């Protein structure tokens, strides 16, 4: 099978290729704004990498005509909520225009291609009655990133209805695990703890709002969910990808600190890490995904946190050794 993965060299893309490459019959075409090795062991599978800007209509069309993919996992995005406040225009260029160019290219030259569009739980905004979010809940985005993903979400399902394209949407909640960049809360905490352990930072962790709750799931469960949606989901449908339970950010931090080899660590609030609008609680209901595809999460939160911390320890110790 010929599989195109946009944003292949990112956090999720690396884990997705590693998971999919267990089937040696796949040929992967990975595209990203930066052309670089994934650093992922894909065994005997073939990976073709190319630097590409999907916001360029001609470039997106050439990729589809050249590779003729059976499936597309569209991961490429500006995925930081915080950064989207700083550069809303760039966020829209990346998250909307690039995706539309892919949809148009499929419509014109490869209408049989299956495509999974990765969107976000940020689209929902805040559900104020304390229940888990379901796919039919009202969309109410409250930051530029969420608005951009809402646009891509809606236009993807429109292209399915209008042109009969085999498109599905995943609304992913927070995912964590080894390899995530420091711009995300769990990885940021783990990085700071690792720096403290290595003697490269004072025993003080700088944090934003610890009072909000989020639905955290291991990235390795996330990519399995993506495969299940692509291969067992219904075209035109939307699926929550989530654990189904909220975790307070403060509890997440406490768990990571408890895994540290360092004694007393001071927690200090940094206003620069706060968002202009921050939703108090978001967690999802994954029953539609489970019933439609048979997917089940395998990783517990403690394992995800431990693996993330170990990844940062190795990264920082290697850098320190150099």
Total domain units: 2
CATH third-tier fold name of the largest domain? Rossmann fold
In N-to-C order, the SSE pattern is EHEEHEHHEHEEHEEEHEEHEHH
List the uncertain runs.
none
Q: Strand order, biggest sheet?
A: 3-2-1-4-5-6-11
Number of strands: 13
* Rg for CA atoms: 19 Å
Describe the structure.
The protein is α/β, with parallel strands linked by helices and 322 residues long. The protein has two domains: 2-175 and 217-241, Rossmann fold; 178-214 and 245-282 and 299-321, UDP-galactose 4-epimerase, domain 1. It contains ten helices and 13 strands. It has a seven-stranded parallel sheet, with helices on both faces. The chain has a two-stranded parallel sheet with strand order 7-10. Helix 1 (11-20) links the parallel strand 1 (2-6) and strand 2. Helix 2 crosses helix 4 (88-109) and helix 4 (88-109) packs parallel to helix 5. The chain is globular, with a radius of gyration of 19 Å. The chain starts with a strand and ends with a helix.
């Amino acid at each position: 099978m010929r599989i195109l993965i946009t944003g292949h060299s990112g956090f999720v893309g690396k884990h997705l290729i590693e998971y999919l490459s267990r089937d040696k019959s796949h040929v992967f075409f990975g595209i990203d704004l930066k052309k670089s090795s994934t650093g992922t062991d894909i065994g005997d599978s073939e990976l073709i990498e190319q630097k590409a800007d999907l916001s360029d209509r001609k470039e997106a069309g050439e990729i589809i005509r050249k590779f003729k993919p059976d499936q597309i996992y569209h991961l490429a995005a500006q995925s930081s909520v915080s950064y989207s406040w700083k550069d809303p225009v760039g966020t829209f260029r990346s998250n909307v225009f690039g995706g539309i160019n892919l949809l148009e290219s499929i419509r014109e030259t490869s209408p049989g291609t299956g495509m999974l569009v990765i969107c976000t739980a940020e689209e929902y905004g805040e559900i104020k009655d304390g229940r888990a979010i379901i796919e039919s809940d009202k969309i109410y985005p409250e930051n530029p990133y969420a608005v951009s993903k809402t646009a891509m979400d809606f236009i993807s399902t429109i292209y399915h209805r209008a042109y009969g394209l085999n498109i599905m949407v995943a609304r992913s909640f927070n995912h964590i695990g080894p390899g995530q960049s420091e711009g995300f809360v769990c990885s940021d905490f783990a990085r700071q703890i690792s720096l403290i352990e290595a003697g490269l930072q004072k025993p003080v962790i700088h944090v934003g709002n610890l009072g909000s709750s989020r639905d955290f799931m291991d990235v390795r469960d996330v990519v399995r969910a993506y495969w299940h949606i692509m291969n067992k989901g219904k075209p035109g449908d939307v699926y929550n990808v989530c654990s189904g339970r909220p975790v307070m950010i403060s509890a997440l931090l406490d768990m990571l600190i408890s895994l540290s080899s360092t004694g007393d660590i001071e927690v200090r609030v940094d206003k620069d890490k706060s968002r202009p609008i921050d939703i108090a609680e978001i967690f999802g209901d994954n029953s539609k995904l489970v019933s439609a595809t048979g997917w089940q999460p395998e990783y517990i939160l403690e394992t995800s946190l431990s693996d993330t911390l170990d990844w940062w320890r190795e990264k920082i110790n290697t850098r320190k050794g150099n």
